[in-house]
Amino acid sequence: GLPPACDFTVFGGTGDLALRKLLPALYLRDREGQLPADTRIVGVSRSDHDQAAYREEVRAALLEHVDADRLDDAALDRMLARLHHVTLDVNGSEGWHELHGLLKDRARHEDTVRVFYLAVAPGLFGSICRRLDEIGAADANARVVVEKPVGHDLASAQAVNDAVGEVFEESQIFRIDHYLGKESVQNLLVTRFANTFLEPLWNSHWVDHVQITVAESLGVGDRGGYYDHAGALRDMVQNHLLQLLCLVAMEPPTYVGGETVRDEKLKVLQALKPMTPADVDRDTVRGRYDAGLVGGAAVASYADDLGHDQSDTETFVALKAEVHNWRWAGVPFYLRTGKRLDRRTSEIVVVFKEPPHAMFPHSEGGSTPNRLHIQVQPDEGMRLHLTAKEPGPGGIRLRPVSLDLSYATAFAQASPDAYERLLMDVIKGNPTLFMRRDEVEAAWAWVEPILTRWAASPDRPRRYPAGTTGPIAAATLLERDGRTWQESD
Ligand code: BG6
């Protein structure tokens, strides 16, 4: 349930994430009356804003990033009145005293929940936690939220987790993967486990393979400094795509809550078949965008976005993963993600096997295998592809048809942003939709051999023109297995 009061402190309080996502999400929950009545929001940054200047900056950000029909003066004023700003350089000594004074205000309720959202580089997580401990702010009422990437590889992820873990208990640490907060991603669990018709088919007897695509039309924008150090495998596959894979592949938990879902996801990560260098060469494709046309507009190459051509960072990955367990033996999971592709779409397609016997002789219209297409974003929904008889007197002709579920049509209310759900979960202390330490590390353990082989391999990322579906080799990866990527129409 909701605590009586909350002090929500954001390190990186004037940064992009805070202004674009976190503060708008808090505003929207506040507008619905869902924040604890006595909530303060403390932005921490190096800028020498006073409170008034910070409120102005946040007001401008809300006007820009919140839909116009959800902006109203009363809610804006209430939200802005909650804001404080503390000027503080994380590595310096100034400002901590002021933060301490604010948080230890005697007038605060003794059960005030203190959230520390670390929207800063992971290299700073450890030292911030230590300082919070020194000022006495890291007690049992405190929760710390860390953004991905947690680390750069397995060893650095362990080091970050150790450093944060020295100060906070695992139950106080909320590692965000915002994909888990998306409505359609949570609905995956409901689709699988609150219905009877899918589960008997959800295994290697009936599923031919699974495809997971997270495509973006945007390029790296002004995040080149971070991105070039990361690349698509670290930025997207290690977290978002593997989390989606886990939710598709996991066993039913006994109930949804507490640790059960995380326990089952961990088992999937541990069952991923480790890749040898030969597997990496055969089953992964790296790409990097060249200049091209996206939605009719000319866009620059990755090198031009970055400002130099010294980089081998991948902006696209396609790979074939296998879950080595009883349910999924022999069922490939094909994953792909990339920037500057032809469109923005995230989707999961479960492709079922052909019926055991083809009994319709003249099926020129073609019988195509059943597919369940889960549209994660945009236009959330689900489509079940079936084969039907085309109406007509002249015998049986088969035609592909689909059953469509669109969230926008089925439900009157719009889906909240992922951060709205996740920030409320932190305030309420509900960890289910956050990544546990062992999950993050298991994901790194699987990804690392790919990084290692790529670094040693003479191959470079393959070029693809912006505005396409990525390098040809990504198509070949499936064609080799007699399959094709299912592009939604
Ligand atoms: C972030 C990545 O985690 O997810 C970005 O760092 C990416 O590179 C973003 O653009 C995609 O999120 P969404 O919600 O727009 O699909």
TrEMBL record:
Reaction equation(s) it catalyzes: D-glucose 6-phosphate + NADP(+) = 6-phospho-D-glucono-1,5-lactone + NADPH + H(+)
Database matches in SUPFAM superfamilies: Glyceraldehyde-3-phosphate dehydrogenase-like, C-terminal domain, NAD(P)-binding Rossmann-fold domains
Pathway named in the protein's UniProt entry: Carbohydrate degradation; pentose phosphate pathway; D-ribulose 5-phosphate from D-glucose 6-phosphate (oxidative stage): step 1/3
The Glucose-6-phosphate dehydrogenase C-terminal domain, residue ranges: 189-486
Active site: 240 (proton acceptor)
GO biological process, one term: pentose-phosphate shunt, oxidative branch
Residue stretches in coiled coil: none
Principal EC category: oxidoreductase
One annotated GO molecular function: glucose-6-phosphate dehydrogenase activity
Keywords, ordered alphabetically: Carbohydrate metabolism, Glucose metabolism, NADP, Oxidoreductase
InterPro entries (alphabetical): G6P_DH, G6P_DH_AS, G6P_DH_C, G6P_DH_NAD-bd, NAD(P)-bd_dom_sf
Record HAMAP family: G6PD
Family note: Belongs to the glucose-6-phosphate dehydrogenase family.
Protein name, entry field: Glucose-6-phosphate 1-dehydrogenase
Organism: Nocardioides guangzhouensis
